User: What shape does this take?
Amino acid sequence: MSSTQKSELFQVGDEVTGSFRCAECDLLVNAPRENDGVLVLGLCPLCGSEEWRRVG
Assistant: This one.
């Protein structure tokens, strides 16, 4: 099975910039615009999923 079948997913603990949606419930999170704009992904506060996908 190929990993290109779905868009690249990011995991809890990844350092990211930009906007992300939970892969399970679609909750939107945004990296802060200050402090270099880096966000460390955590568990989704809504459903507890560990996977995120980049949007935008």
Q: What stands out?
A: DSSP finds no helices and six strands in the chain. The two ends are 27 Å apart (CA to CA). Confidence is low (pLDDT under 50) at residues 1-5.
